Amino acid sequence: MTGGAGFLGSHLCRRLVAEGNHVICVDNLYTGSRANLSELLESPRFKFIEHDIVEPLNVDVNQIFNLACPASPVHYQYDPIKTAKTSVYGAINMLNLAKEKNARILQASTSEVYGDPEVHPQTETYRGSVNPIGIRACYDEGKRMAETLFFDYFRQFGLKIKVVRIFNTYGPHMHPNDGRVVSNFIVQALRGDSITVYGDGTQTRSFCYVDDLIEGMIRMMNSRDEFTGPVNLGNPGEFTMLELAEKVLRITKSNSKLTFAPLPMDDPVKRKPDISLARKELGWEPKVNLDEGLVKTVEYFKGLNL
Ligand code: NAD
Ligand code: UDP
User: Is 139 a catalytic residue?
Assistant: First the structure.
């Protein structure tokens, strides 16, 4: 598991170890932390290696989940060249490892490959609308190149690849300073700080609760050999950021006020997955709606010393 000390990776590590698997977690702790793995560090089925996937790695594995990459715009834009290297060199290094070990390899790709989409909802056949020179490009184009590499290794070497395109996912164990909208709004509401809405708040996103996403990723890893994806994984419920802010204020019973800040460059106007393919191939769909997921996430953040 690369990126196993991060938000999604730590959930996946816990689930895989609980099911009896041996997991090697590889992470450079850029946005992740050992604390995220505290329940696992003593387990005989779990090993943590501090390593940067921009460098090659040799470990014995039969499955690779490639999650290493900062996912929050604040963090992936902090050092954009490093973000691109993580996506591209990291993919090459992990694909070479998969080739060497004859392992299955799953890529955590993203709805960002669709950019600011002109097709709504987004299907896997849509090729996207990405600005190659904008501030999000280090991430979007890095992830697009990683997908290209996965399919070239598949065609050239017959690698067993799996590509999932993850739509905005949230839940417990997000870092309070992660910078993404759900954790920002919850932390701001619990602290009584202003809720920072970018733009006029009418842009939309579709939010998937983490447990649903993890189930989809595991089903994809274990799906029939011929099914490479890419497959969308996300919750098709679509909400504006103003609607999200209202829900968070209601659930936290907070009196925080909204403040408006400029919309960042190239911020997608709308986003919603078409999950027909995941339903058909994986028998998967999300079970937790946004209100239920926010309640669980707020409970987690209340337990932290914010
Ligand atoms: P995260 O930032 O919490 O986790 C990323 C992890 O990767 C961190 O532990 C970080 O330290 C590690 N990492 C970063 N660069 C590395 C490098 N060069 N070498 C080794 N480790 C490195 O983010 P997340 O939300 O858990 O996302 C995990 C993956 O899922 C990412 O690849 C992300 O692009 C993808 N994804 C997530 C979402 C989402 O909504 N959470 C949506 C789409 C795609
Ligand atoms: N956003 C916001 N306030 C915040 C953080 C984000 O209004 O404090 C907006 C952001 O501009 C975007 C949406 O919320 O339109 C989702 O942002 P996020 O960074 O979570 O993920 P993205 O889908 O943009 O990668």
Answer: yes
